[in-house]
Design goal:
The complex is a heterodimer of chains A (580) and B (192). Chain A has helices at residues 2-10, 18-23, 28-58, 67-70, 83-118, 127-146, 165-168, 172-199, 212-243, 269-303, 310-323, 339-365, 376-393, 396-399, 401-407, 411-441, 447-473, 493-508, 511-523, and strands at residues 255-256, 259-260. The two termini of chain A are 31 Å apart. By secondary structure, chain A is mainly α. In chain A, strands 1-2 form a two-stranded antiparallel sheet. Mean pLDDT of chain A is 93; it is low at 1-12. The interface between A and B is large, with 62 and 47 residues.
């Protein structure tokens, strides 16, 4: 392994100079923390956009308090947001949360920091490429965010950017450019993660000894590698439609506002939907698999017993990954595609729920007979199980054509995927922050504040999203600027107020987290190398790990979760310990 | 939970080579999407112009030979790098780079004639897909020329670097991929 040693030599000495060490660093740990901070800021920004929208939904036509005065009159005359601004907020909320918030947090931050440590590697396979990933992600994200102040404003066609609207609406060109930059960043990251996992493992770290989190990142990287290029191609085509006047997605004789559209026509709007969802369905698993891996790590360490069905979980993740490429059109049951195709995608969608349920069942069963430690990360991990369960199970009626025809494009759909990615993914990622914080900064986060954050967040998240199921079943459409404009929505309008109030409560309950996070970096209780008495390799190096991570390359002698072994004094044996 | 003696873990393929293969996997998905788009649009439209009636087949044929030849010289450059023959490497790598430029030159003549006849991407769906696919392929050719030129330049300084031969191999894999894409593009756009 020539390259392995070369990478080792090249980065044996720590970088000198502030700029090399903290800004343009090639160390996976620094890059991981850069991703962590940036993606959490983007999450907060995306959440902020939603808070504005929720005001309009609960109190349509009333001026937004405080912030309404600060917004430019073109966006919100007299503090009341326009429909166009509402649409822009919606499109940017989805885009920012998915592509700039959760994925960079789950993969860029956790993957970058934890994966090399867990496989016992000194760094990523391509450290400079790793730095480039981050330095594409940040400008891409800023470009996306800056579209609010650029002429034409932000994109207004939803995060799905369906044509022909997306080709006619202003603001979309910047969205497409930013997406291509972000996609390139993701692709570089995915290649790096795959090569690192396949080539840089410590001696003895066979594939079946890798922690579940590493497996989750491996499958995620394959999804990013193979699902993102089709969206990149689709984005290039949409870019051509907007800039070069082609008509890939514009049908013949399209009439807009009573005028025949200038494009030559002959294109197919449905083509975009297929290409978009070919990425965007695997993307759902990109959002979900890393948090699942995080939850598995935390469950094993806090139940003090091996995970139930380690191989089932791993095989489940692999089959979810493979299957995720053949379910995309269940997002399109009412798009007018052939019913024969609908049946195919209905069947595959029902099949993909099987491995997902298997993984969740294994995690729930891992609790049985464990001596559970109710630490803050464990509370979040425990909450992940039923919350993600609700998110998954409410998806089934959307995967069946008959029920989907009624529920499609209602608030039920919004409730469903927010239960998956907010009470599922984000809760799982929060668990990860509390779990690995001692490794990152050598100090623990405060438990009391953690508990306040946990209970407040869990309750208010359910307050935000549960009413959406009821509204959706009552027939409230999504993407409404003013829900009171339709009479049948009035019966559930009070639920919009509940949801909005819960959203502000959710913001409030992030305050203890933000305070706790920054306070603990400097003043938190000091933590030793392995504060949770966990078995995986990241706990076998100092906290925080020095440049190059391990003093000498570790050797792996056992499966990842050797908790409570028979005839042993301690209730755990780390992976790098030879004798029992 | 029996503990056993640790063995070396790894794929046996060097980082750089594995990285290039994975990158090519993503590139396959990119161009597969474009070819699928081509098929869907063509099957969905009432009429489709014959490629040979609107496009210049002899020029494209010549370009095909240029690219195939450049793939051969690329392999020869790699072989010379393995044999540690710097002069031979530079000769064949230089030819590869020049052939890349020749391809682009012919392509720009083709584009120029199209624009002269007022055929633009916005003219119809056929020219839309023609310009988009060949344009994206052209960008990949430019990328390959940059990589190859960088290796030509670096061969003076880093000839004895342990990773140099591997880099040439990686660049070669990429160059062959760019070649193969054209092998599919040529019949799809010009002949069918």
């Amino acid at each position: 392994m020539v390259t392995h040693d070369a990478a080792h030599d090249q980065h044996a000495q720590a970088p000198s100079g502030w700029l090399r060490a903290y800004v343009f660093s090639v160390d996976h740990k620094v890059i991981g923390l850069q991703y962590l901070m940036t993606s959490m800021l983007f999450l907060l920004a995306g959440f902020g956009l939603m808070l504005l929208m929720r005001w309009q939904l609960a109190f349509p036509g009333q001026p937004i308090p405080i912030i309404g005065k600060l917004l430019s009159p073109s966006l919100a005359p007299n503090g009341v947001m326009t429909g166009e601004f509402y649409n822009a907020l919606g499109a940017m909320h989805g885009t920012i949360m998915v592509f700039l918030g959760i994925v960079p947090l789950a993969v860029g931050a956790f993957g970058n920091y934890v994966l090399p440590l867990q496989i016992g590697a000194p760094d990523m396979a391509f450290p400079r490429l790793n730095m480039m990933s981050y330095w594409l992600y940040l400008p891409g994200g800023l470009l996306m965010l800056s579209s609010f102040i650029l002429p034409g404003g932000a994109a207004q066609s939803g995060w799905t950017s369906y044509p022909p609207l997306s080709i006619i609406n202003p603001g979309q060109t910047v969205w497409l450019l930013a997406m291509v930059i972000i996609i390139t960043s993701s692709l570089l990251g995915a290649i790096n993660f795959l090569v690192t996992t396949l080539n840089m493992r410590a001696r003895g770290m066979s594939l079946w000894r890798m922690p579940v989190f590493v497996w989750a990142q491996l499958v995620t990287s394959v999804l990013l590698l193979l699902a993102f290029p089709p969206l990149e191609a689709a984005a290039v085509l949409q870019f051509m439609d907007r800039v070069a006047g082609t008509s890939f997605y514009i049908p013949s004789d399209l009439v807009v506002l009573g005028l025949r559209h200038r494009a030559s026509g002959g294109g197919q709007p449905l083509l975009w939907q297929h290409l978009f969802w070919f990425l965007a369905h695997p993307e759902v698993y990109v959002l979900v698999l890393p948090p699942m891996g995080i939850v598995a790590e935390i469950m094993a360490a806090n139940t003090r017993k091996p995970l139930h069905g380690y191989k089932t979980i791993v095989l489940g993740m692999i089959s979810v990954g493979v299957m995720s490429f053949v379910v995309w059109a269940h997002h399109m049951f009412i798009s007018g595609m052939s019913p024969i195709l609908s049946n195919f995608f209905l069947v595959t969608t029902m099949i993909i729920s099987v491995p997902s349920v298997a993984i969740l069942t294994c995690l729930i069963y891992s609790l049985r007979g464990g001596s559970i430690r109710f630490t803050t990360p464990m509370l979040f991990a425990l909450a992940f199980l039923p919350m993600f369960g609700i998110g998954g199970l409410t998806g089934l009626p959307l995967g069946l054509t008959a029920t989907d025809i009624y529920l499609h494009d209602t608030y039920y759909v919004i409730g469903h995927f927010h239960y998956v990615v907010v009470t599922g993914s984000i809760i799982g990622l929060m668990a990860g922050v509390y779990h690995w914080f001692p490794k990152w900064f050598g100090r623990k986060m405060d438990d009391r504040l953690g508990r306040i954050h946990f209970w407040g967040t869990l309750l208010s998240m359910n307050g935000v999203f549960f009413p959406m199921f009821i509204m959706g079943m009552a027939g409230v459409s999504r993407r409404l600027w003013d829900p009171t404009a339709q009479a049948h929505n009035l019966t559930t309008q009070h639920l919009n107020v509940v949801s909005t109030a819960s959203a502000y409560l959710l913001l409030l309950f992030q305050a203890p987290f933000i305070y706790n996070f920054f306070h603990s970096i400097f003043k938190g209780q000091k933590s030793e190398e392995n504060p949770w008495q966990a078995t995986t390799l990241e706990w076998a190096c100092p906290s925080p790990p020095p440049h190059g991570n391990f003093e000498k390359p570790p050797c792996v002698y056992r499966e990842p979760y050797d908790y409570s072994p028979r005839g042993c004094e301690r209730d755990y044996i780390p992976q790098n310990v030879e004798a029992a | 939970m029996a503990a056993s003696a640790p063995q070396c873990a790894g794929s046996g393929v060097s980082n750089a080579k594995l990285g290039v293969w994975l990158f090519l996997a993503s590139e396959v998905m990119l161009f597969a999407t474009l070819f699928t788009t081509y098929l869907v649009l063509r099957l969905g439209s009432a009429s489709w112009p014959r490629g040979w009636e609107t496009l210049n087949v002899p020029l494209a044929m010549m370009n095909t030979f240029v690219l195939i030849t450049s793939s051969v010289t690329m392999v020869l450059a790699y072989a010379k790098a393995v044999e540690r023959d710097l002069a031979g490497f530079r000769k064949f790598m230089g030819i590869t780079i020049l052939l890349g430029f020749a391809f682009l030159a012919v392509k720009s003549v083709e584009y120029g004639t199209k624009f002269h006849h007022h055929h633009y991407p916005s003219t119809n769906i056929f020219f839309a897909i023609y310009f988009t696919m060949t344009g994206l392929h052209g960008l990949h050719v430019i990328g390959g020329i940059i990589v190859n030129s960088a290796l030509y330049y670096l061969s003076g300084k880093e000839w004895d670097h342990p990773l140099f031969v591997g880099r040439v191999e990686g660049a070669g894999l990429y160059w062959h991929f760019v070649d193969i894409v054209w092998i599919f593009l040529f019949p799809a756009l010009y002949l069918l």
